[in-house]
Amino acid sequence: MPTTTLTTANHDDTVKDGIVLIDFWAGWCVPCQRFAPIFDKASEAHEDITFAKVDTEDQQQLAMQYGVTSIPTLVAYRDGIPVFSQPGALREADLEDLIGQIEKLDMAEVSKAYEQAKAQQQG
């Protein structure tokens, strides 16, 4: 599946269902340029996963919302819950391993922990 361009306008709809991997990048970033073909190859191999890209130069508000201070940064969602965030380019094998881990998550447990964390932040 081709990658999706993620913006503030389509963000919420994009991350609400299934597994979503988000690559925060910029055109001038050499590590981003090295990671892009790895990310694109994975998007072709995993048609059931949404692969989204955020151009941090164009979508500065979205990058700030995520607290991105180093690029590339990879963020992963599953069923609308953020489950991973890490700066730095991944090797192909590491990205595949991460995808496998996300697919195996017990989402009942993740959802419960996520709701508890949100309640603690609010209360």
Automatic annotation (TrEMBL):
Instruction: Specify whether Transport is a keyword of the entry.
Output: yes
Q: Which residues form the Thioredoxin domain?
A: 1-104
Say if the entry is tagged with keyword RNA-binding.
no
Query: By its UniProt entry, which CDD domains does this protein fall under?
Result: TRX_family
Superkingdom of origin organism: Bacteria
Q: Which UniProt keywords apply?
A: Disulfide bond, Electron transport, Redox-active center, Transport
**Record InterPro entries:** Thioredoxin (IPR005746), Thioredoxin-like_sf (IPR036249), Thioredoxin_CS (IPR017937), Thioredoxin_domain (IPR013766)
Pfam entry (one) = Thioredoxin
Similarity section: Belongs to the thioredoxin family.
The name under which this protein is listed is Thioredoxin
Q: Which organism is it from?
A: Brachybacterium huguangmaarense
